[in-house]
Design a protein that fits this description.
Number of strands: 9
Oligomer: single chain
Number of helices: 9
Radius of gyration: 19 Å
Structural class: alpha/beta
Strand content: 15-25%
Length: about 270
């Protein structure tokens, strides 16, 4: 079992380690507060932070995809009204979005309340607390652009479809939804997603067979969850789902294999009417 998980389960050890870890993370992040190429501070609670070079590169990679999706849709950053970043976390991508769009038009949305509070305070954007129950999410406005970095990658088939419908319906006419998925490359590195577990739920050979049975979709939950884990959704499956759900109301304007951080596939769909 992972040592970190063992410590967390031991209440005494966890009570000792928690404040120590907090102080360590604070000190570690202090040197990155004014790093070249970084807009704003990094929260010491930012779970997406690994090292400053990669952190910045992932944000920049997202912006390249967003800009390409806007171009393919006949839009520019200047033409956007409301923008949604879900899940925003502590602003890995949002810190760059607010350099292109006035922050008062950008909403940080996440189930992590500390994350959206940090984004509002640090970047001056709006915030919205999300929910793990997709059926309860209600957006207050329609959006010109929605960016979804690595959320579909963790959902089962029903939640994947439900979230896609929810976000598409939240677009204004002509609005663009840009989202990432685990594609063919993720099949190749599938076992790496399960390093914190004893082993992957299936071998790569078994995964290939499961994907063939389901026309390109596979999901396995984490050990401590029933409906949150790792999903693989190949391009034909995603394209077919979009066509089935939205028919002539949506247009796939961009697809880029391994487009985000040379890892996840990127799709962009535009709401036609």
């Amino acid at each position: 079992m992972n040592i970190v998980n063992t410590l967390k389960k031991n209440k005494v050890l966890n009570s000792i380690m928690k404040p120590v870890t907090k102080q360590y993370r604070k000190r570690k992040y202090q040197k990155y507060l004014a790093s070249l190429g970084l807009n704003g501070k990094i929260s010491y609670k930012d779970a997406m932070f690994d090292n400053i070079t990669h952190y910045i590169a992932v944000g920049e990679s997202a912006m390249v995809n967003i800009e390409n999706a806007l171009k393919a849709s006949g839009k520019t950053f200047a033409s956007l009204n409301e923008v949604l970043d879900i899940p925003s976390g502590h602003g890995r991508v949002l810190r760059l979005l607010v350099t292109k769009v006035p922050p008062e038009r950008v909403t940080a949305c996440d189930i992590d309340e500390d994350g959206i509070n940090f984004c509002k305070k640090e970047f001056g954007c709006k915030k919205m607390l999300s929910s793990a129950d997709i059926s309860t999410i209600q957006f207050p406005v329609n959006y010109s652009l929605i960016w979804v970095g690595s959320l579909f990658t963790h959902l089962d088939k029903k939640a994947f479809s439900d979230l896609l419908v929810l976000l598409f319906n939240a677009l204004e006419p002509g609005g663009v939804l840009v989202f990432t998925t685990h594609g063919k490359y993720s099949v190749e590195i599938f076992e790496k997603y399960w390093l914190a577990e004893k082993s992957a739920p299936v071998s790569n050979e078994q995964l290939q067979k499961e994907l063939e049975k389901t026309n390109g979709f596979y999901f396995a939950p984490y050990a401590n969850s029933k409906d949150y884990g790792i999903s693989v959704s190949l391009k034909p499956y995603v394209i077919n789902l979009i066509e089935t759900l939205f028919q002539n109301k949506a247009k796939v304007v961009m697809y880029k294999e391994r487009g985000w951080d040379d890892h996840q596939d990127v799709f962009a769909i535009q709401k036609l009417h």
